[in-house]
Amino acid sequence: MSGISDVARIAGVSKSTASRALTGGGYVSEATRQRVLDAAARIGYVASTNAASLVTGRTKNVGVIIPFVNRWYFGEVLEGVEDALLACDYDLTLYNVRPGSASRSRIFEHFLARKRFDGIITIGLDLSPAELERLRSLDRPVVSLGAQVEGASSVAIDDVAVSRLATEHLIGLGHTRIVHIGGGRSEDLHGTVHGRRLRGYLDAMEDAGLGAQTLHVPSEMTLPGGYAAGVQVVSNLRSRPTAISAASDEVAVGAIVAARRTGVQVPAELSVVGVDGHEYAEMFSLTTVEQSPREQGVAVVELLMDALEGRHASPTTLLHPTRLVVRSTTARPRE
Amino acid sequence: MSGISDVARIAGVSKSTASRALTGGGYVSEATRQRVLDAAARIGYVASTNAASLVTGRTKNVGVIIPFVNRWYFGEVLEGVEDALLACDYDLTLYNVRPGSASRSRIFEHFLARKRFDGIITIGLDLSPAELERLRSLDRPVVSLGAQVEGASSVAIDDVAVSRLATEHLIGLGHTRIVHIGGGRSEDLHGTVHGRRLRGYLDAMEDAGLGAQTLHVPSEMTLPGGYAAGVQVVSNLRSRPTAISAASDEVAVGAIVAARRTGVQVPAELSVVGVDGHEYAEMFSLTTVEQSPREQGVAVVELLMDALEGRHASPTTLLHPTRLVVRSTTARPRE
DNA sequence: CGTGTGCATGGAACCGGTTCCCGACCCGTT
DNA sequence: AACGGGTCGGGAACCGGTTCCATGCACACG
C-alpha cells in the first residue's frame, strides 16, 4: 500500500514537503504543491488518518453511543448524524448499547478507552455516575441528544411540552376522559423521555381541572406495545375513554389498529393523538406533534464541531422546535 | 492521558517488557506480568489500537457499508453485526450510503481509502464495477450480506425460493388470481432483492400453470409503499385478485391496512402473505416466510473473522434457512 | 569447570505520518 | 557590498505502541 514517502519520491521532494503540500501547512511553492498533488492523485494516495492522529491528536473519528438503531426515532437520528459527520470529513464509530445488555459496561470500560475518537455523541442515553465519570476521564468533548448529560452540550425537544400540547389539543376539542398510553413509572417524571411525556399529560390535565381523572396505561414505545395497551383501553367497556394521548406515534398507531380491529371507530368514537412525526403518521392520517430527528442529528453534530474547534466552551442546550399537525384521528367527542 | 511508558515506569520495567506482558507475546516471568497488569489496571490503561495498528497492521476495526439503517431488515442486521463484532473485540465504523445520495462516491474514493479497518462488510449493496475495483484495491477481506459481491464470501437467503414458497402457499389454498406487490422491473430478475422475489412469484405461477395470469404492482419496500399499492389492488373492483403475495412484510402490512380501510375482509375476501418475519407480523397475524436478519449479521461476521484469520481462503456462500409461518391472513378463496 | 541452552529483560529501530528547526536562496534596503 | 526578512525545502525528532536483537543470567551437561 502506498505511503507518503512514495508520493514524495515520485514528486521528487522530501517527506516533509509532501506532507506540507498535502495538509496545507507551512510554505510550499505553488509549483511544488501541484507536483505533489498530481503524484498523490496518480497513485490514489489517501493519508492514513491513523498514523496522522498519532502526532496531531485528531483522529477524524467520532464515537456514537445509541441504545437502538432499529426504532424509528433512533434510526432517523443516526442517519442525520452520519450525513453531517461525513460532510465534516469525520468517520462514525457505532456503539449500540441495548438496555439490559451485558456489553454495556464493556463498551464503557474497554472500547471507549481506546482513544480512538475526537468526540462522543450520546443519543437518548441516561448515564450512570460511573459511566459519566469514565466518559469525562477520556478528556474529549461529549455532546448528547435527547437526554441531559451533566456538563455536556445537548440538543433535545421539550418532551413535557409536546405531550402537554397533544393533550391540550384533545381537551380543546372537548374531551375529558383522556388516557395516556406510554411508559414511565409515576416516580420518574423527569429522568426519561417516557417520564417527561407522562408529566406533560398530567400537567395539561391538572391545568384543565381534570387532575382527578387522569388515566395511565403503561406500554413499550413500540407499535406492538401500543397495540397491547390499545386492546386494554378499548375493551374497558363500562367507562371507555373518549381519547388517547399516546407517548409516541408508534404507540398511537398500535392503539388505532387495536381500536379498528375491535370495531371502534377512530375518530368518531375514539380520538388518538401521537408524538413524533413518524413516517407512518401520514398514512394513518394521525394527528401528532412533529419533531424532526434527522435535523436534530445534524444539530448535535454542529454542537460537537463547535466544541472540537474550541468555539463557545460553555455547555449549551438547544431546544428543537416542534409543531402540532392536525389530521383526522382526532375529533370532538360524541354527545 | 496515560501511555504504556507510564505503565512500564510504575511497574519498574521497560516499555518492551510491558508490551510483552500486556499483549502476551514473548517471554515474561509470571511475577513481572502480574506487576505490569496491576499497574495497568491501577491507572485504567487501555492500549491505543491506533498506535498499535501502525506496526501490527491490524486495526481491530471493521467498516460496514449499508444503504439504510432505518428499515427493519437493515436495522436488525446491523444490531446483529454490532453484537458479534463487539464480542470479537472489534469496533464498527458505519458508512451509510443511501441510494441516490451524492456521498456514495465520496465514501468509496475517500473514506474507505483511509486504511482504517481490517475488513469490510457490505450489506444489501449492489456495487458498480468501479466500486468493486476500489474495494479490491484496499487489499482487505470483503464479505457481503444479502447480495453477491464477486469474489467475496457472503451470507444470504434464497430470495427466489422464499417468494416462491409464499406464492405456492397461496396456490395450495386454491387461489388463482394472485398479485405480486413489490419492486423490480421485469428486466431485472436477478440483480436485486426486489427482482429475485418477483422471479420467485413468477416461477411459482408458471409451475402451477398460471403463467398467463400473473399480475405485478410495483411498490417501495415500505409500509406506505405497500399501502399505496394495496389501495390500487383493492379498488380494482371488476376483477379483484383473491390473494396478494407481497415482497416483504412491511408491504404486506401496508396492503392489509389499505384493505381493511376499504372494508375488504382479510382473509375472507383477500389473502395476504409476506416475507421477512418482521416484528409487526405477529401483531397483524400475518402469514409470512420468516428469515432471521440478526442471525445473518452474526453469520457474516463469522465469515469475516475466518477470512481475517486466514481460514478457508476460497469464497463461500452461506444460504440462511427460512420457514413458512402460517397465521391468519391467508385462507381458501370464497367460492 | 567450561560451555551451550533457554528464559528474562532492556535498548533501539520501526510503522506512517506531522512538525520543529535550521540552512539556502532571493530580493529589496541601507 | 553587507545585511535582513520572507520563502522554500530538507533532516530529524516525535507520536505510542510492537518487535528484533543483544545481553545477562541460571542451570544442566559433558
UniProtKB/TrEMBL annotation, chains A, B:
Pfam families: LacI (PF00356), Peripla_BP_3 (PF13377). Coiled coil: none annotated. One of its GO terms (molecular function) is transcription cis-regulatory region binding. Residues 2-56 form the HTH lacI-type domain. The keyword DNA-binding applies. The keyword Hydrolase does not apply. CDD domains: HTH_LacI, PBP1_LacI_sugar_binding-like. Keywords: DNA-binding, Transcription, Transcription regulation. SUPFAM superfamilies: lambda repressor-like DNA-binding domains (SSF47413), Periplasmic binding protein-like I (SSF53822). This is LacI family transcriptional regulator. It comes from Labedella phragmitis. The lineage of its organism: Bacteria, Bacillati, Actinomycetota, Actinomycetes, Micrococcales.
